[in-house]
Amino acid sequence: MEKIKRMGASAVKILVYYRPDLSEPASQQLNTVNMVASDCIKYDLPFLVEPKSYPIGSEINNPAEFAVLKEQLVIKSAQDITALFIDVPKAEFPANLRYKWDKAELINLCHQLDMSSQVPWVILSAGVDFGLFYQEVEIACQAGVSGFLGGRAIWQEAMYIDDERERVQYLSTVGADRLKRLTEIASRYAVPWYQKLGLAAHELAYTSGKWYKEY
After folding, report:
1. Catalytic one among 5, 42, 90, 180?
2. Is 90 among the residues known to form the active site?
3. Rounded to an integer, what distance in angstroms lies between the CA atom of residue 185 and that of residue 148?
4. CATH for the stretch 2-214
């Protein structure tokens, strides 16, 4: 962690494969997160954690079965992870839109995720296609999310363009437009991170006269 700080990193992010219903591996993963969190506090680095659910047993060959279980796995994971000293959980969307379509149910699941998270949370893309990710961000923004952290959903098609010039052109047009569209919807509807922490915007500007002692 000290080396990361010296290199000029702005934050630390780790991915943990996590199932709250598997007590032993879950405990080991939480210990890992807690250890990294302690170092982040020591070196004054924001800490983002991405808990990733995964299928086991019969779920591996039955995506519909796992889709049902995943809903509460994601929600419980947020509860467990944010009980530790982390800054932002990078959460999976708590449903699979290929198996659940009712918007009210989807918003309710995101509300449950929001209630389970003790800190501001963002939604990840998990490499789904852009249209699907846009729907997920739109729904999550109605239920407490504070933003998104997307990668492949924005640029993955560029990986299959061999010509460098065409690839750059794709990223600077299609990729940039996708990012703009996501940013617009998040800016308009997502919950500001400070509101999740019970603060108002004007309180962010306050600095104590003893800040150098209190920091």
Report:
1. 90
2. yes
3. 10
4. 3.20.20.70
